[in-house]
């Protein structure tokens, strides 16, 4: 997912010059997998200490206005699954999950569950 940022003054990004007036697309998926920020970024860890610092909902003035609703919906859905399907488990070992490559939305190729 590329988020456009408009460059207001000449600068450098990764050692490359970027001129004022240019548009730079920030890849949030890459930022969320930055090893300097998230140790073992490809490992699914819902209890990671700094999970709340991800950029899935943007940041600052570009923060998603619907993020609170999305988080509540996720809590309700996952809570319902856990209550109604207490034996819900991943079918395969977590380390075998394949991350979908080359798409805008990202995620896993598949995630089979049993109950």
From TrEMBL:
Keywords: Heme, Iron, Metal-binding, Monooxygenase, Oxidoreductase. The keyword Disulfide bond does not apply. InterPro entries: Cyt_P450, Cyt_P450_B, Cyt_P450_CS, Cyt_P450_sf. One of its GO terms (molecular function) is iron ion binding. Belongs to the cytochrome P450 family. This is Cytochrome P450 BJ-1 (Cytochrome P450 112).
């Amino acid at each position: 997912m590329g988020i456009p940022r408009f460059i207001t003054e000449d600068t450098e990004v990764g050692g490359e010059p970027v001129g004022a007036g240019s548009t730079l697309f920030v890849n949030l998926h890459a930022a969320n997998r930055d090893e300097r920020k998230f140790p073992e970024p490809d490992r699914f860890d819902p209890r990671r200490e700094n999970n709340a610092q991800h950029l899935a909902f943007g940041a600052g003035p570009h923060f998603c206005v619907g993020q609170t609703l999305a988080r509540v919906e996720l809590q309700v859905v996952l809570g319902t699954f856990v209550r109604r399907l207490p034996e819900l488990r991943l079918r395969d070992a977590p380390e075998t999950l394949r991350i979908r490559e080359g798409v805008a939305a990202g995620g896993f190729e598949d995630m089979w569950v049993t109950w």
